[in-house]
C-alpha cells in the first residue's frame, strides 16, 4: 500500500463529491463552502509507518502523593510520542466514541474529522460514535454513528453543532455506572473527550474508573478552550484560542481606527472577555499584542476592573473634576464594547483547522496503541505542519488537588498569564510607548488564503521562542 | 502617450516603494500591509480618451418648484456621463480640496486616493488639499497638502484618519463666507465633499452659493454611508454599506452557529443597528439575506422594537406564563448583542475598495470638466469593474423639501427599504421557512483574495436584477 498522502482530506474517501445535506442548514455561504475542501496537511510522522514510544514516567503538577491516591491505576504513567518505524500496527477495527464537552471553540469539528479519517485510514472497519449534547449523551446513551456523509459538511467549519456540546459532568457513582453501561453496550475500545480543564479532569477520572475495573475502554482527552488556559510544555496551546483572539482583535482594531478617525468619541479600549467567567487573561494579552491599545489591564498583574462601563465612569468623574478646575475643556463620551460570543463559533483559522485535525488524528493513534488517560499533544507548532510532533501527555501530570468540602478534588491547574513569560514581557516592554503614542494595529478579518493565512498568534510564537 | 494601465495603483508614481511612515502608527498588521498594494481596477472609460456628455435636464425628488427657488443657479441641470472620445481634455493643473463629512464608512480613503491619482494622471501639476476634521476644516482653513507619501499608507485601509472627519455643517451666512474665504485663499477650482445625505445637501448649498457668486470653485459630492440610505437609480449604493454589512453578518453568523451548538442559550438574533440613529433598515435586511435568522424585524414594515433586551424580556415573560400552565419546562436565557461601531472602520471589502476608487476618479473627471453640484455616480456595478459606468447626478434631482421652523429646507430624500423592492420581496418569500427551520448561514470573515473576494452584496445584486 502506498503511504497516505500528506494532504489528507478524508483519506481515500471522495469527500469532495459529497453533497452538503446532513447539516441542519443545507445552504452555505461562499466562504463556508470554500472551507469544506480546504486541504489539511498532516505531521509527516503519519506519512510513514510509525510506533508509539513511551517517554519517562510522570508525576503531577502539585501534591503528587494525593494525585497518586486519587489515580492509583494511572498515576506515574509515561508520556507517549509517535516515531517513525519499520512497520505499522496492522490496525484492527475499533469502536470509538467522541464527545464535545463545555463551551464551543473553533476547530472542534476538525478534531472529530481527524479522528474519523485516522480510523478510516489506519483501522479499517472501525466505528466512530458521536455522543450527543456533551457528557449527558454518554450517560443517556444518546449518540449518532458518524459517517463520511455526516461529517463532511462540518469540515473546517465553526461551531459544535455536528453532535452539540453540554456542560454536564460524570460525577456520581451512578453516573460512572451509566457511562460504563454505555461503553459496554457499544463495546467501546475508546472514548475521546474534547474539552477544557474540567472536562479533561473528568476524562481522567473516567479513564481511571475504566482501568481500575479492567474494562477495555480507553479515554483520551483533547485540549479545547478559547481562553488558552489549558496548556503546558507538551500542550503548547489549546485549540480555538488562535481563532477567537483573531476575531476579537479584528473588532478591537476596527474600533481603534474608528476612535482615531474622529476627536468626538474616546472609545473605551478596555478588553473585557467575561465569556466563561475565567480568570486567565491570555486572550486580553494576545489581543493587546495584536492591536497595541493605549491601556490594557492584565488580571494576573492588577485586580481586573469589573466592567468597561465602570472604567468609563471613572474617566468621566476625573475629567469632570479637571473641568471644574479649568484643566480640561473638551467633551468626553465613552463607548464600551464587549466581545464575547462572536469569537466562540467563528470559522476556524488555518492554524486551528490544522492543529485540531492533527489532535484528532493523534488521538486516534493513541487509542489504537492502547493508551488511556493521556491528552493528545501536538508540538513544535511554530514549524510547518509536516514537522509537528505528535504524542500524548498523562492527564495526571497536569493535575493538582483542591480541597472542597473537606475532600481532595483533582483539578488540572489553570495556566495563568506568567508575568515573567515571554508574552507578558513583550507587552510590558511596549506598553509605555503604546500608552503615550497611538501604535494601533488593525489585524483585519481572518484570511484563509494568501501569504497571511497561516500565521498563528503572538502568544504561541513568543512562548515557543520563535518571535522575539 | 500610452493609455494608462487599467490597473491603477498610483498612476505613474512608484507608490509600491514608499515606506509606511506618515500614518500615526508606523506598524501595520500583515493584512493591512497586504492591502496597501492591492491592485485596483478602473472602469475602462478611463483607459482611453474620454469626454463628459450631458444627459437630459433634471427635476427634483419632490416639490420641484421649491427646490428651483432654493437652487436658482443649479436646478434643472443635466446629469453627466463619461464616454469614449477621440481626444481628451489636455488637463491643466487644478487646485482641489477634499473633505470627509460625518460618520466613518469603509472606503473613504480610497475616494481620496482615486481623486489624487486622477489628478496626477490627467491634470499634471495639480494640488489636492485635504481639509482636516470635516467641514470645520474648510471653515477654519485647516488642511494638509496631500502627497503620494502621505496618501500611500491609507490605500485600501479602513477609517477616516487620513484627514479625519467631523459633523459640523456650513450653515450660517458667516460660515458660507468662511468657506468662500478659504476657497479664495487656496484658489480652489473644486471641492469634493464625501458624506451622507445631510453632507451632500450641504455640498449642494455650497455649490449653489459659489455658482451664484460667480466663483470658480465647483463642488462635487460622493455617496458615503454604511446605512445604505443614500441611493437612487444613478447611484446604486453608498460606499461602506457592503463592508459594514459583511462585518455584521460575520458576527451574526457566528452567534447563530453558537446558538445551534448548545440547547442552553437562545441567542436573541434581533439585529439592531442603532449606530447612526437612522431610520432605514437596509443593513438589517442585507444581514438577514446573508445569514437567514429565524426572525428579522424590518422597521419599514413593523414599528421596530426599541432594544434587543426588551425582546428578551417579552420572551421571558411569555415563557414564564407557559411554565405556570405547564406548557413549557425548559430554561430560557436570552443573550443580546449589539453590533455597531465595529463595522464602520473595517478594512474595505474589494467591492468598496474598487467602488470608492472609481468614485474618486470620477469626481476628478467631473471637476476637470467644469461640473458642479453633481454627486459622483458609478453604475453597472454588477458587472466587472472595467464595465462600470462613470458620471454625475445633479444633487438637486435627489432633493425634496422639509418644513422646519416655518421655512422650507432642502433635504436629500432618504432611501428607505421599499416593501415592494426586490431585496424585501426576497426576504418576505423566505422568512417563513427561516422562522420554522434553521437555515442559518455563517458568512465568515471578509476575504480579500480567492474566489469569494469580489462578491458584493444581496441588496445591490437584487436591486440590479442580477440576483433572483
UniProtKB/TrEMBL annotation, chains A, B:
<dbReference type="InterPro" id="IPR000023">
    <property type="entry name" value="Phosphofructokinase_dom"/>
</dbReference>
<dbReference type="GO" id="GO:0009749">
    <property type="term" value="P:response to glucose"/>
</dbReference>
<dbReference type="GO" id="GO:0047334">
    <property type="term" value="F:diphosphate-fructose-6-phosphate 1-phosphotransferase activity"/>
</dbReference>
<keyword id="KW-0963">Cytoplasm</keyword>
<keyword id="KW-0324">Glycolysis</keyword>
<keyword id="KW-0460">Magnesium</keyword>
<feature type="domain" description="Phosphofructokinase">
    <location>
        <begin position="95"/>
        <end position="321"/>
    </location>
</feature>
<keyword id="KW-0479">Metal-binding</keyword>
<dbReference type="GO" id="GO:0006002">
    <property type="term" value="P:fructose 6-phosphate metabolic process"/>
</dbReference>
<dbReference type="Pfam" id="PF00365">
    <property type="entry name" value="PFK"/>
</dbReference>
<dbReference type="GO" id="GO:0015979">
    <property type="term" value="P:photosynthesis"/>
</dbReference>
<dbReference type="GO" id="GO:0005829">
    <property type="term" value="C:cytosol"/>
</dbReference>
<dbReference type="GO" id="GO:0046872">
    <property type="term" value="F:metal ion binding"/>
</dbReference>
<keyword id="KW-0808">Transferase</keyword>
<dbReference type="InterPro" id="IPR035966">
    <property type="entry name" value="PKF_sf"/>
</dbReference>
<protein>
    <recommendedName>
        <fullName>Phosphofructokinase domain-containing protein</fullName>
    </recommendedName>
</protein>
<keyword id="KW-0418">Kinase</keyword>
<dbReference type="GO" id="GO:0003872">
    <property type="term" value="F:6-phosphofructokinase activity"/>
</dbReference>
<dbReference type="InterPro" id="IPR022953">
    <property type="entry name" value="ATP_PFK"/>
</dbReference>
Amino acid at each position: 500500500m502506498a503511504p497516505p498522502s500528506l494532504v489528507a482530506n478524508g483519506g481515500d474517501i471522495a469527500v469532495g463529491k459529497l453533497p452538503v445535506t446532513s447539516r441542519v442548514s443545507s445552504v452555505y455561504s461562499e466562504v463556508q463552502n470554500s472551507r469544506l475542501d480546504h486541504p489539511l496537511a498532516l505531521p509527516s510522522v503519519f506519512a510513514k509507518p510509525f510506533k508509539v514510544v513511551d517517554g519517562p514516567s510522570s508525576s503531577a503538577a502539585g501534591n503528587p502523593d494525593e494525585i497518586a491516591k486519587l489515580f492509583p491505576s494511572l498515576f506515574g504513567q509515561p508520556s507517549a510520542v509517535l516515531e517513525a518505524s519499520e512497520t505499522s500496527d496492522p490496525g484492527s477495527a475499533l469502536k470509538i466514541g467522541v464527545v464535545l464537552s463545555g463551551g464551543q471553540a473553533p476547530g472542534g469539528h476538525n478534531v472529530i474529522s481527524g479522528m474519523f479519517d485516522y480510523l478510516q485510514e489506519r483501522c479499517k472497519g472501525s466505528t466512530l460514535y458521536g455522543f450527543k449534547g456533551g457528557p449527558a449523551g454518554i450517560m443517556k446513551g444518546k449518540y449518532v454513528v458518524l459517517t463520511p456523509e455526516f461529517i463532511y459538511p462540518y469540515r473546517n467549519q465553526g461551531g459544535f453543532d455536528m453532535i452539540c456540546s453540554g456542560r454536564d459532568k460524570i460525577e456520581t457513582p451512578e453516573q460512572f455506572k451509566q457511562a460504563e453501561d454505555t461503553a459496554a453496550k457499544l463495546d467501546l475500545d475508546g472514548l475521546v473527550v474534547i474539552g477544557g480543564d474540567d472536562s479533561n479532569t473528568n476524562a481522567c477520572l473516567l479513564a481511571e474508573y475504566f482501568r481500575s475495573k479492567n474494562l477495555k475502554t480507553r479515554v483520551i482527552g483533547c485540549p479545547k478552550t478559547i481562553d488558552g488556559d489549558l496548556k503546558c510544555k507538551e500542550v503548547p496551546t489549546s485549540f480555538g484560542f488562535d481563532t477567537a483572539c483573531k476575531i476579537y482583535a479584528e473588532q478591537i482594531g476596527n474600533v481603534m481606527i474608528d476612535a482615531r478617525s474622529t476627536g468626538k468619541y474616546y472609545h473605551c479600549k478596555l478588553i473585557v472577555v467575561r465569556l466563561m467567567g475565567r480568570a486567565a487573561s491570555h486572550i486580553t494579552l494576545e489581543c493587546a499584542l495584536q492591536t497595541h491599545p493605549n491601556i490594557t489591564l492584565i488580571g494576573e498583574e492588577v485586580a481586573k476592573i469589573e466592567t468597561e462601563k465602570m472604567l468609563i465612569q471613572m474617566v468621566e468623574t476625573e475629567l469632570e473634576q479637571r473641568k471644574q478646575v479649568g484643566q480640561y475643556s473638551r467633551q468626553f463620551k465613552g463607548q464600551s464594547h464587549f466581545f464575547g460570543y462572536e469569537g466562540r463559533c467563528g470559522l476556524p483559522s488555518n492554524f486551528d483547522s490544522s492543529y485540531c485535525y492533527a489532535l484528532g488524528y493523534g488521538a486516534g493513534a493513541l487509542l489504537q496503541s492502547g493508551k488511556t488517560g493521556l491528552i493528545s499533544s501536538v508540538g513544535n507548532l511554530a514549524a510547518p505542519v509536516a514537522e509537528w510532533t505528535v504524542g500524548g501527555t498523562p492527564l495526571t501530570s497536569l493535575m493538582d488537588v483542591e480541597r472542597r468540602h473537606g475532600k481532595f478534588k483533582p483539578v488540572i491547574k489553570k495556566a495563568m498569564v506568567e508575568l515573567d513569560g515571554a508574552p507578558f514581557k513583550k507587552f510590558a516592554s511596549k506598553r509605555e510607548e503604546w500608552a503615550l503614542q497611538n501604535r494601533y494595529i488593525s489585524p483585519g478579518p481572518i484570511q484563509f488564503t494568501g501569504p497571511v493565512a497561516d500565521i498563528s498568534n503572538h502568544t504561541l510564537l513568543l512562548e515557543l521562542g520563535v518571535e522575539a
